[in-house]
């Protein structure tokens, strides 16, 4: 049995083939796997706006810093982000007063 990719829209693992197309039964999204493979990965903020290297973003939720008692507060501006597709954290950045961090794009909005 071949391993099908997760849905690019909702990340559901219950994808099935319908001819040359792949279909997600959870959100109804249909896509051609060859077209998706040719595209560069896109990163979007919590509101669906596309992110790019060098953007400034604002944190939308209090985030605890793993391994310390520090908290990144709501409204913290993060300048000059760098996007990466390594692991589940999309954003490499440096936050004033805390230092280098990795953030998930779902917890930021474009400033």
Automatic annotation (TrEMBL):
Gene3D superfamilies: 2.20.25.10, SH3 Domains. Transmembrane segments: none annotated. It comes from the Bacteria. Residues 44-111 form the Protein YjdM C-terminal domain. InterPro entries: YjdM, YjdM_C, YjdM_N. This is Protein YjdM. NCBIfam families: phnA. Residues 3-32 form the Protein YjdM N-terminal domain. Belongs to the YjdM family. Pfam families: YjdM (PF03831), Zn_Ribbon_YjdM (PF08274).
